[in-house]
Amino acid sequence: MRKPIHLLVSIVILCLLSACGGGGGGGSSNSGSDAANFGCSGGCAGQNLSAEEVRIVIGNGVLGAQALGVQATFAVVDRVGNVLALYQMPGAAQDTVFDGQFGAAGGLEGLTVPSTLAAISKAGTGAYLSSQGNAFSTRTASQIIQDHFNPGEEDQPGGPLFGVQFSQLPCGDLNGGSSGSAGPKSLPLGLSADPGGLPLYKNGDLVGGIGVELDGIYRLDRNIQDRDLDPEEQLALFASQSFAAPSERTGDNIFVAGKTLRFTDAAQSDFPVVAEIFPDLGAENFVAIPAFGSGQPRDGQIYGSAASGVVRSVRAGVASAVLTNSAGGPRYPTRGAGALPAAAVDAILDSALLTAQRSRAAIRTPRDSSARVTIFIVDAEGTVLGMAASEDAPLFGIDVALQKARTAAFFSSPDAGNALVGAGLGGYAQALSAFLGRQVLDGSVAFTARAIGNLSRPFFTDGIVGNPNGPLSHPFPGAAGSPSWSPFNTGLQLDLVQGQLAAALGNLSNPAALGHGCSAVGRRLANGIQIFPGSVPLYSDGRLVGAIGISGDGVDQDDLIAYYGASREGLDAAGHAGIGDAVYGFNAPPSLRSDNLIGPFTDTRLRYVNCPERPFIDDNSQNVCDGGV
User: Does residue 565 register a pLDDT over 70?
Assistant: First the structure.
């Protein structure tokens, strides 16, 4: 059977090398492929990679590595994170070492892990951060998670997705616990910022990602003022050429805070001429990791099908999606808890989804597209009460939306400080009280993910070099002794999950051992916390009853959808006038909100939410998050 596959692949490569065009090849540059532009923005038919197409991707990558005279490890995943192939060339580096390139100490810095795990996380990052409306890479991720945005621009705030790298973890109860083909799957090292991970497209639909690891260093790009000729990124580009990203959707078409995002530094034109003989992909070089499959090429799942675990639906008249269980039913059916009954949960989900539909997206093309997000509602103990997602929302937002919701619920609870003490993390609670001059983890303050993020930066206020670290962060390297901050050692965020993450990475031969919870404080934070914006706690009669978390678009859009979705105005607009407080809906009373707290410096009030100017596509409303809504 191998010869016919080789013949097919050889024909495809000949076509690519002669620039004869086709579904996703030809016209490629560092901005994606013009031939891959199908005008898709969420509604195009779902596609998948066949096992033979997976072989083409791996084969192209191996051809490229042979041309460069290097040996590499390649991973291909589908859109929901199933590993479709894991291939390690003979002589490839077996391990890779975490190096944030900050000179930092502690956390994951200096940790050695198998290079196969790095390749999987890179492939998954390319798939999870992308959609039909945007194509992002691990280089894009590197740009948006660092201590400044852009990296290296001192006195600028941290990246908009600061902290997102610690999501999709194998110990988490959402991704880590999925079985069979149903996603979203966990990524062994979380989301990656090491160049060499790209999304894969077919007829305009996102069908997965390719990840490449070869240099033995798991890092990020600290200097984006230059253009690297990174061999891992070069090989990912060469591997993906038959399934390249649409040039109209790549990150360099998207502006965040007035800055262009990066997709790749390398381009197809940087590559040397490659022999047209397709390499023999020996079966012995495909690597099995029980938690991630046999490593042998297999078909990917079509996103939106029951087998993918994410099924298309309709809610409040809006095209949407839900997660499903192995029986095909909703994985998180709506339910109530105490003063947050099921009818209220459904009302808030409707309101948030309609708010997203009205909101102008920040990270999608074409411009004036609707935001596409995932929505989770939890009770005060972090138990899921309901979820919904916009059609074509990026997959990373599923785990992150739940993290954000749990973050708001936990830190707003009366026993948050005691829970941290019980988990051996009481030093953070003490530092926070000292920093703000009062006890705040006792239920007296309504915290959002944005507020917790303010307190979790290596500089307070965010980005101001020379200022001390926030109380939930480690200090920047050079400011104090060990441990110190890096993207691989963020502070409380990592310390909450590091023990269980290490246990999960040591148990990848036993998939049943995964997905039982990451956090040292138990099920309330079972997939960890998140420290960039997009959640608010929910209140009824002045009492904490839960939280809503949003993720998938710009951080201000996430804030808007959470806050406005829970507001009186949002609920009324969704047709739920009789549910929630007559003034606040389910938002916290203003007297409880974290923006009443002032830090140790003049004019350093914490934030609660920050909503975009003129956020809606269908009207010119301004300041929609002001006032008592």
Answer: yes
d(CA 542, CA 1): 68
What number of helices (H) and strands (E) belong to the chain? 13, 17
Distance CA 183, CA 180 (A): 8
CA torsion sign for 565, 569, 575, 578 is positive
Q: Are residues 277 and 345 in the same domain?
A: no
Residue 295 lies in a domain: no
Phi, psi of 320 (to 5 degrees): -145, -170
**Are 404 and 422 within one domain?**
no
CATH code at position 133: 3.30.450.150
pLDDT tops 50 at residue 23: no
Asked whether the CA dihedral 479, 485, 491, 495 is positive or negative, the reply is: negative
Range of the domain at 27: 2-289
Closest residue by Cα to residue 249 from 361, 403, 411, 148 = 361
* pLDDT tens-digit readout, 491-507: 999 999 999 999 999 99
Q: Taking 70 as the threshold, does the pLDDT of residue 9 lie above it? A: no
Give the residue-averaged pLDDT of 408-429. 98
- Backbone angles phi and psi of 613, in degrees to 5: -75, 145
Query: How many domains are there within the chain?
Result: 3
Does the N-terminal peptide bond of residue 461 adopt cis geometry, omega within 30 degrees of 0? Answer: yes
Q: What is the pLDDT of residue 30?
A: 59
381 and 345 part of one domain: yes
8 and 147 part of one domain: yes
Tokens of 409: 């619920």
Asked if the structure places residue 618 within a domain, the reply is no
Integer Cα distance of 570 and 582 in angstroms: 12
Q: What is the pLDDT of residues 367-390, one digit of tens each?
A: 999 999 999 999 999 999 999 999
Running DSSP on this structure, what letter comes out for residue 467? S
- The string of pLDDT tens digits covering residues 469-493 is 999 999 999 766 679 999 999 999 9
Domain end: 525, 560, 579, which one?
A: 525
- Which residue from 80, 329, 78, 312 is spatially nearest to 182, judged by alpha carbons? 80
Shared domain for 424 and 363, answered yes or no, is no
pLDDT attached to residue 1: 34
Tens of pLDDT, residue by residue over 69-116, are 999 999 999 999 999 999 999 999 999 999 999 889 999 999 999 999
Quick one: 243 and 132 in the same domain? yes
Instruction: Tell me the helix, strand and coil percentages in the chain, rounded to 5.
Output: 30, 15, 55
Which of 525, 548, 567 corresponds to the end of one domain? 525
- Provide the 3-class DSSP secondary structure of residue 261: coil
pLDDT value for 19 = 32
Summarize pLDDT for 127-159 with one digit per residue, the tens: 999 999 999 999 999 999 999 999 999 999 999
- Looking at residue 546, what DSSP letter applies? E
The position carrying tokens 């050079």 is 478
> If you write DSSP's letter for every residue of 356-424 in order, what string do you get?
HHHBBPSS-SSTTPBP--EEEEEETTS-EEEEEEETT--THHHHHHHHHHHHHHHHTSTTHHHHHHHTT
| Whether residue 99 sits in one domain with residue 230 | yes
Contacts of 509 (CB under 8 A, 6+ apart): 289, 290, 291
Helix, strand or coil, per DSSP, at residue 435: helix
> Does 482 lie in the same domain as 366?
no
Report if residue 147 sits inside a domain.
yes
Residue 620 within any structural domain of the chain: no
